[in-house]
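Review box. Two proteins, two foldings.
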Amino acid sequence: MMPSITDVARGDGWELRLGNCLRDEWPECDHVFTDTPYCDHVHAHHRTSKVGHGRTNVTLDFPPFDPFDRAVTAIKIAQVVSRWVLLFSDHESVSQWIEAVEFASLRKMRVGTWHKPGSTPQLTGDRPGQATEAVVIAHAQQRSRWNGGGLPAFWSYPTRDGCTRVHQTQKPLPLLERMVEQFTDPGELIIDPFAGSATSGVAAIRCGRRWVGWERDPDMFAVAKRRLEATHEQPQLPFEPRAKAQQGRLPL
């Protein structure tokens, strides 16, 4: 049995914990952004691309989530969060996430879409490929507010964003930066209980937010720690929700 926390790395405005987040105490926070493990079906059929080797099946090296895992995670989130909750989800698990967040007395606000240009095609050719992932968007019980104006919950960013991928399900940094700017305010605390390579933490630091994350794999913890230590806040232009809406890009 893995102990709750075996190591902690800290920097200016961030903290990364090594261990099982569900066995640890979470700090009160403004937001939760996280990409939990997928369901059994997705783990069994996961495909990715490897440079120079075409498209191939790659076994995900972490266990899948089931309805109990989602329920426990949602309850933990509801106990500490005061504003937004963003949960990346395979489409098969969306209904279970909605049930879990509502059971935990969070408000289900929207199911957003991350569109992945250049996504892996359906190799069997017998059905359409999957070019999107869902984002279940929830909120604590108080009144909601966000910085996106009238924009839809739709983000179009390729999986490969020019950065070296160090995790099997790593999200593109520009996508997380965009979400941080749209849903959070400077100085607020975001937590990510399933941090992986800590892309959400890198985005938070670059955008002037605070961040706490958990990663249970020691090797990935070391990778995430190095990424966080190398990250610094970036000067940000005023966020304009209508600017570059089609491109979905942050001004740099």
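Next protein.
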Amino acid sequence: MLGGLDLDPFSSDSANEVVLAKRYFTIDDNAFLQEWHAKNVWMNPPYSRGVCAMAVDKLVLEFNDRRVENAVALTNNATDTKWFKVLAGAAAAVCFTDHRIAFWNLDCKKVSGNTRGQTFHLLTRSSSVAERFAEEFRKYGLVFVSA
């Protein structure tokens, strides 16, 4: 949808075999200490308590400071959290999935039993990118595009 990914800031060697970002940060690189400088970012942040909020804050900062042009963030649909409101407030479009996503562990094996629904958030300044996101992600759930 974005024409390729330049950065996955919370990744691993095995995850990038699927994501195929040109550049990625592992836990050893500490994405929080890096400037991201990327046209297209994919972010599936760590869901550990407090870390997801920090990841959202970092993404929004990098986007607002124009070091990131477009980003798609996959998170739990935790609409009751402060970080969700921050991310949704920055998003040009949001997709609430109509199913629970089966994630993979470090060995690329599916982990069953996901107890939460997920949301994809698009950060962009481009209405055409928002339109492409809406068209592509409607097959995964309910999509809202900001005016």
